């Protein structure tokens, strides 16, 4: 009887081992298949501000098209009248990861608990301060107050299991009293557990800094990186911020500066991708504030994705051979 009991126990254990082995084999196969889809590189999302007019006309249909382009996830810029529950369901059905959301600082200050609850309900891991008005920028009368506001929001986000990010432009690269750039002063004033970076590499470069070096500087604190390309020629005329939907009274037609699909501008995208991987980043986010070169916003988003796929497939072989994406018009 005792022998039979031992045999039964051994048979059950053996069956468990076989089952476990089978499950592991299946999981490994799934992991390899997933790796093949993404070329074993960082997943890629689209900042939906890039296609905001399309989102306003057909929210779900645009998300579906974004997925079909090859994007793994999205970063929101408004919900266009949809509820968090509806947006969560759409992302789940389509197969898009709801990564993060740009939320105006004014909205966070007005009701931070609702902002956190809404985007947590969607499934976002990050909420992002996308832009601050002049008085809250380095040198502005409310700059120090803004730092404390961000500290408070970051604390609430952390308590809710979310991470607060700050998305820069070029105006944060103004030096403050201690000689630091305002952006660095912000990150040295608020600890990493309350605030992490979302470096917009377009504006880092436009401010005269090395975008790769800046990403390396914040390695371990840069979970989401904005990949954005642009072209600038000659003397800047007008206001580049008019091209991102701000400063409406400024001239919008600007031949000296324009946002471009990845690979069609001045950025060394392969080096940026390598730097993001080395910095421990989790997501690459493509953004193009305004379309260019006669293309629609959706066409620009598709061009950027196709170029980035080629960069990843070539294992960044073009890092020192700044090749351009297909369809780029180089007649400036």
If you had to describe this structure to a student in words, what would you say it looks like?
The radius of gyration is 23 Å and the shape is globular. The strands form 2 sheets. An 8-stranded parallel β-sheet has the order 6-5-4-3-2-1-10-7. Strands 8-9 form a two-stranded antiparallel sheet. It has 12 helices and 10 strands. Helices cover 44% and strands 13% of the residues. The protein has one domain: TIM Barrel (Alpha-Beta Barrel), CATH 3.20.20. It is of the alpha/beta class. About 10% of the residues have low confidence. Strand 4, helix 7 and strand 5 form a beta-alpha-beta unit. Helix 3 packs parallel to helix 4, helix 4 packs parallel to helix 6 and helix 10 runs parallel beside helix 11.
Mean pLDDT: 85
- Total strands: the figure is 10
Shape: globular
Q: With helices defined by DSSP (H or I, 4 residues minimum), what is the helix count?
A: 12
Secondary structure layout:
Layout: H1 2-37, E1 44-47, H2 52-57, H3 59-69, E2 73-76, H4 84-94, E3 97-102, H5 105-110, H6 112-122, E4 126-129, H7 143-159, E5 163-167, H8 182-189, E6 196-198, H9 201-206, H10 211-217, E7 224-227, E8 229-232, E9 257-260, H11 269-278, E10 283-286, H12 297-313
Parallel strand pairs: 1-2, 1-10, 2-3, 3-4, 4-5, 5-6, 7-10
Antiparallel strand pairs: 8-9
Write a brief structural summary.
The protein has 332 residues and is of the alpha/beta class. It is built from twelve helices and ten strands.
């Amino acid at each position: 009887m005792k022998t039979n009991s031992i045999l039964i126990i051994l048979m059950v254990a053996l069956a468990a081992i076989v089952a476990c082995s089978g499950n592991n084999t299946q999981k490994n196969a799934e992991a390899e298949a997933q790796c093949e889809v993404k070329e074993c590189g960082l997943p890629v999302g689209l900042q939906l501000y890039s296609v905001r007019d399309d989102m306003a006309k057909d929210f779900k249909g645009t998300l579906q098209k974004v997925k079909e382009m090859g994007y793994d996830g999205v970063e929101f810029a408004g919900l266009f009248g949809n509820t968090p529950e509806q947006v969560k369901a759409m992302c789940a059905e389509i197969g898009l990861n709801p990564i993060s959301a740009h939320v105006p600082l004014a909205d966070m200050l007005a009701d931070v608990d609702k902002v956190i609850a809404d985007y947590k309900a969607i499934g976002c891991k990050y909420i992002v301060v996308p832009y601050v008005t002049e008085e809250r920028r380095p040198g502005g009368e409310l700059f120090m107050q803004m730092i404390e506001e961000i500290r408070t929001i970051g604390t609430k986000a952390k308590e809710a299991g979310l991470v607060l990010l700050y998305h820069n432009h070029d105006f944060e690269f103004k030096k403050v009293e201690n000689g630091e750039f305002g952006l660095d002063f912000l990150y040295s004033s608020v600890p990493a557990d309350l605030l992490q970076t979302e470096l917009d590499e377009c504006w880092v470069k436009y401010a005269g800094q090395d975008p790769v070096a800046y990403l390396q500087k914040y390695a371990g604190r840069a979970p989401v990186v904005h990949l954005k390309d642009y072209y600038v020629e000659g003397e800047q005329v007008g206001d580049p911020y008019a091209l991102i939907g701000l400063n409406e009274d400024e001239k919008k037609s600007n031949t000296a500066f324009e946002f471009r699909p990845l690979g069609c501008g001045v950025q060394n995208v392969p080096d940026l991708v390598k730097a993001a991987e080395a910095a421990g980043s989790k997501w690459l986010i493509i953004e193009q504030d305004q379309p260019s070169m006669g293309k629609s916003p959706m066409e620009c988003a598709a061009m950027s994705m196709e170029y980035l796929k080629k960069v990843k497939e070539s294992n960044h072989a073009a890092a020192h051979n700044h090749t351009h994406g297909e369809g780029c018009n180089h007649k400036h």
